Amino acid sequence: MKAFVLTLLLAAALSSARRVGDRAETAFLLLSPSPSRREKALTSRRMIDWEYFKTFGRKKTRREIFWDEMKKSIPKFKKLPRIQEYVKYASGQYGSMVPVVAPFHEPSTEFVPGLTAQPWWDPSQFPWISKLEENVETIQEELETALKNPGEFSFASDSAYSTTMGSGWSSIRLQRFGEWREENTAKFPKTTALLRDLNVPFAPRGVMFARQVPQTGVGRHSDGLNFILTLHLGLRVPKDLCSMKVGEEEWKKWEDGKSLVLDTSFVHETRNESPDSDRLVLIVDFWHPELTDEEREALQFVYFRGNQYDRKLIEGLQQPGGAVPQGSTARR
């Protein structure tokens, strides 16, 4: 019992330290004397934070503006107790701490209480996953065909902004925040049609092909959102050389044609120990099965509005003299 309590305290301390470290990194980058260095180093989200700081100073944070608007926009929150609590956590009403329900569980303040939290889930719980596995050859063939024509598309890397993902991880996004990316889905019509036909309960984060190059791995991190589960379907995996660890569980290996389902609000990491072969998987983010349809609708609305705003702001920043749009819903 003492060991478990100590583990929970350590997890909470590490989570807090990461948040402090992230804020410190942002502050350092924002204070850099070189504008070009600052702009290259900041992610879009941090650039947005910086624009808000320049425009509003300390009068109101972006999160406060966003959640003030959300509370007015969604009267349904009053009828959904868990979403009401989610709003209180996400808007900062409860401060920065969230319940730690298991070792190495590190949910963000965008937290829905009362949901089962476990590192790994049994794929057989989700009928659409078995149907996806039955059609894995179609997905594999379409991806392999596309890889023979690399000039027509490219894997995008997050490594320019994140030491966690590292230089070896990259992706081709088919869907993001509920929107299908036509420039990519047009190159994978069979995969896209299959996913749509299966009525997958897509969550806001997205659908993608993910590549991990040889001798690299993704560092230990939590994605934070406890109301989303993630499917990894092995498409091309060097046998017995690629694995993932979630929470304090044992490492699990990807296999061609087989699925892994995890809760990425637990600390997790990956590795590809092959000397010369990429690991390719299909990743699908989907709703936690204990959310009701009404709760999913409310969360989808929040992320849709937030994404709308971020896109508008980023487009504005790309224009000469771009500034924060006034009178728009601000994202967290």
UniProtKB/TrEMBL annotation:
- Keyword Oxidoreductase among UniProt keywords: yes
Instruction: Keyword check for Oxidoreductase, yes or no.
Output: yes
Keyword terms, alphabetized:
Dioxygenase, Oxidoreductase, Signal
- A cellular component annotation (GO) from this entry: membrane
List the GO molecular function terms. dioxygenase activity
**According to the UniProt entry, where is the signal peptide?**
1-17
Q: What domain of life?
A: Eukaryota
Which intervals hold domain Aspartyl/asparaginy/proline hydroxylase?
Answer: 133-289
Cited Gene3D superfamilies: B-lactam Antibiotic, Isopenicillin N Synthase, Chain
> What does the similarity note say?
Belongs to the aspartyl/asparaginyl beta-hydroxylase family.
What is the official name of this protein in its record?
Answer: Aspartyl/asparaginy/proline hydroxylase domain-containing protein
Originating species: Chromera velia CCMP2878
